[in-house]
């Protein structure tokens, strides 16, 4: 596979706190990767650095062979990287369609066709004219996905999209994520629900105290003593 994203020796500090400490990571085109670790391990900070929210103190971010380090979010979005957020924050009194249209405009595209394609991929076309404030939690998370997909990303970061969902809602979400991956979108999924995550991803990266602790096949990584000790504890995956 071809390397899509390469994070090279990235460090990020907030005062005396080291959030990222020399992180190196490669994501190949077409992958579905899980990114796990305890709170404060650096997962969201890494996403924020890659997507331009934060500038790293050291290191570089290479996307499809181009250095995008420190570029603003809208430029990075237009180059093919999108993300969702832990807490969906749609504009509640706008319709689902209008919310997704606003996202597409932010990323430099005014194509109505692209907006409808995003709604269809995320299973929300029948809710297009419903106000966002009237959606269920899982529908709001799918709307967050559709807003990201409206920018036609090649690489999509998912920040705890499964949080708070019930089993049947998790199944619906998982089906959508598989569909996006089959359509050619490379996915990196940050999630605390490891038992659910490993049902879908083909690789797991574990972060701990600002660095990469482990990286590999899910069934192997989640059983590593250092991963169990630092994060998983008594979690069972049955």
Can you describe what's shown?
- The chain starts with a strand and ends in a 6-residue tail after the last helix.
- Strands 6-7-8-3-9-10 form a 6-stranded mixed sheet, with helices on both faces. A 4-stranded antiparallel sheet has the order 2-1-4-5, with helices on one face.
- 34% of the residues lie in helices and 26% in strands.
- It has 9 helices and 10 strands.
- The radius of gyration is 17 Å and the shape is globular.
- The chain is of the alpha/beta class.
What are the defining features of this structure?
10 strands, 6-stranded mixed beta sheet, alpha/beta, 4-stranded antiparallel beta sheet, 34% helix
Helix content: 25-40%
Helix- and strand-based class?
alpha/beta
Strand tally, please? 10
Q: List low-pLDDT spans.
A: 234-238
The radius of gyration over CA amounts to: 17 Å
How much beta, percentage-wise?
A: 25-35%
Order of helices and strands: EEEHEEHEHHHEHEHEEHH
Question: How many H/I helices?
Answer: 9
Label the overall shape: globular
Q: What distance lies between the first and last C-alpha atoms, to the nearest angstrom? A: 31 Å
Q: Describe the strand arrangement of the main beta sheet, using strand numbers.
A: 6-7-8-3-9-10
| Biggest sheet overview | 6 strands, mixed
Oligomer: single chain
Average of per-residue pLDDT values: 93
């Amino acid at each position: 596979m071809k390397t899509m994203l390469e994070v090279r020796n990235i460090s990020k500090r907030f005062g005396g706190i080291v959030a990222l400490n020399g992180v190196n990571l490669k994501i190949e085109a077409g992958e579905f990767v899980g990114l796990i670790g305890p709170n404060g391990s650096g997962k969201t900070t890494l996403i924020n650095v890659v997507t331009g929210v934060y500038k790293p103190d050291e290191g570089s971010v290479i996307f499809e062979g181009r250095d995008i380090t420190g570029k603003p979010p809208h430029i990075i979005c237009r180059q093919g990287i999108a993300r969702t957020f832990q807490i969906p924050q749609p504009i509640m009194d706008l319709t689902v369609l209008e919310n997704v249209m606003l996202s597409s405009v932010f990323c430099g595209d005014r194509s109505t066709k692209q907006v409808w394609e995003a709604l269809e991929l995320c299973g929300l076309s029948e809710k297009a004219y419903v106000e966002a404030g009237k959606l269920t939690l899982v529908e709001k998370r799918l709307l967050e996905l559709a807003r990201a997909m409206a920018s036609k990303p090649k690489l999509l970061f998912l920040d705890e999209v499964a949080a708070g969902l019930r089993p049947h809602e998790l199944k619906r979400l998982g089906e959508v994520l598989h569909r996006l991956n089959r359509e050619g979108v490379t996915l990196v999924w940050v999630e605390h629900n490891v038992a659910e995550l490993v049902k879908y991803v083909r690789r797991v990266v574990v972060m701990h105290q600002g660095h990469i602790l482990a990286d590999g096949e899910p069934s192997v990584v989640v059983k590593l003593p250092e991963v169990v000790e630092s994060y998983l504890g008594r979690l069972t995956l049955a």
